[in-house]
Every structure is written in structure tokens, then in C-alpha cells.
Sequence to fold (319 residues):
Amino acid sequence: MVYLELIGGFILLIVAGDMLVRGSVGLALRLGVAPLIVGLTIVGFGTSAPELVVSLDAALNSSTGMAIGNIVGSNIANIFLVLGLPAMIAPTICAQPFIGRNMAYVLAATVLFIVLCFFGPLHIWQGALLFSLIILFLVVTGLQAPRQYQDEVSDIGDKLPNTVLISVFILTGIIGLPAGAHIIVSTGSEIASSYGVSDTVIGLTLVALGTSLPELAATSMAALRGEAGVALGNVLGSCLFNLLAIMGLTALFVPIPVPEALLRFDLWVMLAAVLVLVPFIWSGREISRRAGAMFVLAYLAYIAAVFMPRHSALAETLF
Fold:
């Protein structure tokens, strides 16, 4: 029963997040807000809403391990799984405009986040630093964003025909997101207790995978349409928002202790995932089907390592 509740929480979270983004974009465009501003703010934050509300709910309910585990696990899943599976369907082109610059931002944000984690719990000043950097990123991106991006944002909002429907979408999103997050956090904590694992492990695996489902679905459909390269920028943007916006906002509200296991292993896997992606993007090479399969295998190996007893001889060797 608890697993059905968890699945229901994920479905509610994903549907509510999508409705909130579409409703908010539609309202903003009807109020005359420039599509570029809408894309950088509402769409940017809205597509990361599942991770945001889950991490905030977990932190506010004393499950801080799940909060930070969700962010780290989501970024690992975004690179190894969300990019790996679509590449197995169709090779992913890595030569889009600005993609190399965004890769540099993700790498820098990852290194900064790891450094902050080694200086103890993430408090309000670390949160303020991280969140200020996402604001800076939005400003810089806004000055350089291509016209195509603005047109894509307009297409999202124009699909809602009237103000009443827009209001329904926004209201459903506002109610559904925290409700879905609360279900996920409570059931995730229950599963962790029943199996004798920490809420950090659940955050790194079940919760992180669930909150990454929208990105996985979008990239898989893009690959089936032969447009897998389009989703690469969205994955990098999601990784950046997770580290800077979501972790920054969460730390502003609640101090986030960093579990020792993350410092020894999971943070380095996240950095390794980013470094593996760097050569593909900076050289403009495609992520081939073989590379995609290796990405997926790496993710499966990581999940297996997370569930290893942390005090076993093999775990001590790895960590």
C-alpha cells in the first residue's frame, strides 16, 4: 500500500507541476510579460518545482537527509539516466548554441556546492550565495537568449484558451504540488524505516528518480521524434537549478546537515557524472548509443552501491 501511495504522490507531483507551469506561463503572457522573462523565471523555476517542494517539505519535516539526497541524486539521474536512455534510442547531438557555456556553469556550480558541503551544514549564508548565483545566471542568460527560446515559451502559454482554464491550472498546481510532496516525503520516510536505511538513501534513489521523471519522459519523447539534442540544454538547466535555486532556497529556510556518506561517495559521483559529460559537449561530439548504454550502466552501478551496507568491507574499500 505504501508503494501505491508513493506512486500516487509522484503522479500528483508531476501533473500539478506541469499544470502550474502552463497556467503561469499563460497568465504571464496574457498580462503582457515578455516571453523571455517568462521562460527564464516561471518556466525555469516551474520545471524544477517537483524537486523544490519535495526538498522543502523534507527539510521542514526534519528529513534533511532526504532533502539534500534528492538534489544530489536528481543530478546524477539527470546525466546518467535522463541523457543515457534517450541516447540509446537516437544519438544526442551536443553542438547547440550556448551549450558549452552552460556546461561550464554546471561544472562550476557542482564544484562550489561540494566545497560548501565540506564546510559543515548548509546555513542561510550558503543558501543566499547559491540563490544569488542562479539570479546572476538568469540575468546573463536573459541578455544572450536566442529568439527561438522565446517562441517556444509562447507556444506553451498559447495552448490555454481562456482565463478560467488558466486559473484552474494554476490553482491545481498550487494545491497539488505540496500535497504530492508531502505524500512522497512521508511514504519515503516510512519505506526507509521499514528497510532500515536512512532517509538520505531514499532521497538519493526513489525520490530523486521520481522527481526526475518529467525530464526523463521529455527527453525520451524527443529522442523518439529525432530531437534528442534539444533536451540536452534542459537537463543542464535542471542540474543548475537543483544546485543553486532549490538547495539555495531550502538552506535559507532550514539548516541542512550534510551526511558523512555523501561527503565520502555521492558528491563525488555527481562530480564524476558532470566530468564525464564535459568532453562530449566541449568537443561537440554526439552521445552515441554505446555511450548512452554506458551512462545507464553507470547509473545502475551507482544505485547498487548506494544500497550496499555502508560498513561492509567492500563499501569501506569503495568509500
